[in-house]
Amino acid sequence: MGNSMTDQTQTSEMQTPPRDQSDQKPGIIRVEGMHKWYGDFHVLRDLNLTVDQGERIVICGPSGSGKSTFIRCINRLEEHQQGKIIVDDVELTDDVRQIDTVRREVGMVFQHFNLFPHLTVLENCCLSPIWVRKTPRKEAEATAMEYLERVKIPDQANKFPGQLSGGQQQRVAIARALCMKPKIMLFDEPTSALDPEMIKEVLDVMIELAGSGMTMLCVTHEMGFAKTVADRVIFMDGGEIVEEAPPHDFFTNPQEARTQKFLKQILAH
Amino acid sequence: MTESTMKAPKKALRPVKWMRENLFSGWFNTVLTLGVAYLLVTSVGPLLNWFFLDANFVGSDASDCTGAGACWLFISQRLNFFIYGFYPDELQWRVDVMFLLLAVAFVPQFIERFPGRKWLGLFGIFGLPVVGYFLIPGGAFGLEEVQSSKWGGLMLTLILAYIGIIASLPIGILLALGRRSEMPIIRGICVIFIEVWRAVPLITVLFMASVMLPLFLPEGVNFEKLARALIGITLWQSAYMAEVIRGGLQAIPRGQYEAADALGLGYWRKVGLVILPQALKMVIPGIVNTFISLFKDTTLVLIIGLFDILGTVQSTVTDPAWQNVAIEGYVFVAFCFWIFCFGISRYSQNLERKLDTGHKT
Amino acid sequence: MKKQTFDTRPAGPKPWNDPQVRSIFFQTIAIALVFWGGWVLVENTLSNMESRGISTGFGFLDETAGFGIIMNLVPYDATMSYGRTFWVGLTNTLLVSAMGVVAATILGFIIGVARLSSNWLVAKMALVYIEVIRNIPLLLQIFFWYFAVLSNLPSPRQSVDVGGALFLNNRGLYLPEPLTQDGFGLVWGGILLAIAAVVAIRVWAKKRQLATGQIFPTFKVGVAILIAVPIISYLAAGSPIEWDIPALKGFNFGGGITIIPELAALWIALSLYTASFIAEIVRSGILSVSKGQTEASKALGLPNGLTLRLVIIPQAMRVIIPPLTSQYLNLVKNSSLATAIGYPDLVAVFMGTTLNQTGQAVEVVAITMAVYLTISLLISLFMNIYNRAVAIKER
Fold first, then answer.
1. Domain, as residue range, for C141
2. Could you tell me how many helices (H) and strands (E) chain B has, helices first?
3. CA–CA separation, B266 and B262 (whole Å)
4. pLDDT more than 90, % of chain C
5. In terms of domains, do B24 and B82 share one?
6. Is C232 part of the contact surface with chain B (CB cutoff 8 Å)?
7. ipTM, two decimals
């Protein structure tokens, strides 16, 4: 499977502004010949992927295809055993310092939000800027409020996560990740644990974020989101990248049989 | 694109890899492992020697204990006393029958799919005390009477724990229901009763039972020492039992109460037919756990002069005929308790896991 | 209990079917039963005590006790009153409880963390410790330490001698006692100064961090100050401590501090036993913090140490503290097993000897139970306050 380094033609139904390509850095994430095993189980097989700065990638695939594991490898929540992962010119190895460097620059949003229940929304957002970036608290709080406004819940800043709805919690989680001013955002099925009526509010935030030129990797089943936002859609099955293509090609003219089958199942209703 | 049969990269042989990951990952773990291993190696040898290699197993009295190790024949020589106390030798078959019935009733509980397991359990809870009531003290059906002052050893330990738990069960149920009652005065009485007993140590309860109970009773009415201890233990235990059962009552969803109300069941039918059967099933692990702690706590009766298994051993290790056998005695008692408690706690953990999954599906 | 009528406006049930009436009826009966029972007990007790010639009331507390107690924290001798024996017993109970709580907490946390260690051997040893110790009765463990271990130590003449200052034999552990001389006030001053300085540094460091983001190594600097300042002031004052070193006089040691074997055995057994329960509490507390929390914290770039300190421990402690306090309460109650080996705790001295000599069972038992009830209420009061303070807010 070759890496498609070609720049995408803009799909006609795109609502977000085309990304600004002036200061983009090629290959902010480079994955080369990466393999991962759980014991003897071969979860990820020979993955190759290059993501440019500002690119928006959607990863989809049936459950158990290794897509979550893949993006969790990018900030080393999971270890890979073979191949290379280079994020912002830092290679992920056993070196704890390099891992911490990468994690500072990579924000992550989880399926189950994982907000810290013992801290208020504002404290959740300020924790890492204060302790890792060593930002003065006033400044950290100002930044946090800015992002909370961007995700449209500044009024909940002093509540605890347990007092919010699922959609609100996920928006806080996005704001929390943004407060570190990351260069890359990873989304691990951010809407899968939400009630249907809350999915839209989270997707709106993500679309807005995509418009601002953030480099994004999203594992999601929201095909509408993929169509509107993605520069590339990657389809994974059985631990392999089966197909990658611009969304328009991907949805209208899938090449591989496995992709066609998946799309038929997911778009059936 | 990739060979699908590719194997995980093997950097080292399996055991070596395992050891590197689980024993020697980093300098701190290596130091820990080496330290613990050193302690183990240096202590296992002497312990093995003491327990087995240098120990004496055969003989008839202290003079046969010549080795540097344990004098196990002290245990085998006095085993009868440790199990039956002063119960007359020729009547000990009655105790043996009870041991057998106890095993028949409860050992199958550990074996899943044992036929009639439930009925044996019910017999163990309701039938066994009745049989024991006639068999152990005697005095009826032509059985010779044996004073309770002659009971002792393991038998007494089991009697105390068993009666303590069985008798505290109904009182505990009533107290738990009372504590959840909507009548403030009933609730208040139950709360005070439960909290007072739970706050005081068992020793003070036993002292109270042995010293104060005679003062409370009208003149002429008197209980034997064992009965007094049992009353104390039962009241004390019922407070703990009430809290366990209350946990079960609280875990029953509101819908069950509402459904029972909707069926027009009165209070006692609602509780007896709908709520309690579910709640009790849910708290079996909790009851088993309180049983374990009560079982350990029965050793305290030796302080008021009863001879439970620890009491019998404690009174013999000071016997001048045997020299320095305290450790052997304590190891023996510890082993008896450990087997019981560990076995039962494993059983209750299994049960908990099973009930847990039962609720999720 | 259920109204069976289907009228739109019930005409009012018959009184014995009205839940309200029934409720009042049952409660009246309950009160009557309690009062009647109480009255019968009091009646019986009074007549029994009269016929046995036992006096009533708390006057006995002022009478001379006339018996010796082997260990006392408050001044005591046989000429003092029964009231004084109560204080001796109570302080002894509190002493062994406090010692036990400290040791059991330290040991329990270490073993609980060891149980989760990635080191297989360490984790298994912790498991073995927990499963062995908590399944053996505490009283047996106390006997083991007292009768099998400590009484098998050498006699005073063959004491284990550590550096000529510390002696261990079957009569106890003898430690040198520091006697403060003139000028020790300076050392106290130094200690107070160090504490004040550490507090000030903490406040300052926190403020500076909030203002500028700089993180100050408060812990390391604080420890250094706490150690250095008292030592410097001690030396500056000309080492104003003289050690009263225990020495063999006749058949036993004199001078210094003595830890009697009864206290040592009880302390060791209580600590080891309670630690096995605390270890399980700590383990399940840490496990209760979900893996997602650790992952989220790592994904935010917090290194392991900060993840532990800012995310895991604050959440685990909420789960750990309530059962931990009830273990402390158990430890205080279990310290009453002292009476079995003759350590003069409250139960042994007051409910044992004092009760036997005066025969005033009701008063003595009531006082003793009141003490334990008070301790228990204080501990649960603390726990409730704590729970309310840290409760995680949810909808």
1. 70-76+91-158+260-348+369-395
2. 17, 0
3. 10
4. 34
5. no
6. no
7. 0.87
